Amino acid sequence: MATNDEKIKNLHQAKEPEYDEITNEQLISDHEYDGIRELDNDLPPWWKYLFYLTIVFAIVFILVYHVFKSADFQEVQYEKEMAEAAELYKRSDPAADAASLTVLTDDESMADGKVTYDKICSVCHAKSGEGLIGPNFTDEYWIHGGTIQDMYKIVIDGVLEKGMISYKDQLSPKQIQNVLSYIISLEGTNPPNPKAPQGDRWVNGEKLVE
After folding, report:
1. Residue ranges of the alpha helices (H) in the chain?
2. Tell me: the pLDDT tens digits for 10-63?
3. What is the pTM of this model?
4. Could you tell me how far CA 157 lies from the centroid of its own chain?
5. What is the mean predicted confidence (pLDDT) over 137-149?
6. Host H or E run for residue 29
7. Where do the CATH 1.10.760.10 domains begin and end in the chain?
8. CA–CA separation, 8 vs 37, rounded Å?
9. Overall fold of domain 94-204
10. Are residues 180 and 155 in contact, defined by beta-carbon separation less than 8 angstroms?
11. Phi then psi dihedrals of residue 204, to 5 deg
């Protein structure tokens, strides 16, 4: 007695092959859905080669990234590149490190510092540095320290209880160095109607005990 597989095989063999009317390609008789018959065609060579290429790529990817771990994933690459960029930025700009800050006196730095001062600082410290809401910049007295490093820290951290916000996200380290150098240059300029001294007296970067 013939098995089911043998019956199906004999049934297929008994049928004459059918062909598509347009392409004249042989139809697969058992592949039909909703009136659509499938052609028994080979895949195009370019499709096969592309498929083989994806297999090769997958194998190489697994070996490189998961087995031998000879390359970094995108997240790790990003973190390394950001760290390298930060280091390069620090080396190229001494103002990026507060400890290495110096007072600048060249015309270009002073001009740039004045632009920043007029735009941001003059609102609270007055146009000539005589002080308004903020303290006077033209005398020798400083509330939070009289060195450029002390001033840099104030610009970076802010003094919220006094209305001084942080400018670390608004000004680059170089801009901060320039504007602080300009502010220091205002000492002794004696503008009209200066605000009364506040804080401790500092001379040549040193605090004086009176």
Report:
1. 4-14, 45-61, 74-92, 107-116, 122-125, 148-157, 173-185
2. 545 555 677 767 777 666 666 677 777 666 677 889 999 999 999 999 999 999
3. 0.57
4. 21
5. 94
6. strand 27-33
7. 94-204
8. 19
9. Cytochrome Bc1 Complex; Chain D, domain 2 (1.10.760)
10. yes
11. 55, 40
Pick from 137, 136, 172, 133: nearest CA to 155: 172
- Nearest Cα neighbor of 193 from 134, 130, 143, 146 is 130
At 151, the amino acid letter reads M
Question: What size, in residues, is the chain?
Answer: 210
CA distance 169 to 159: 15
Distance CA 26, CA 44 (A): 17
The residue type at 14: A
Tokens of 92: 């190229």
d(C-alpha 168, C-alpha 96), whole Å: 11
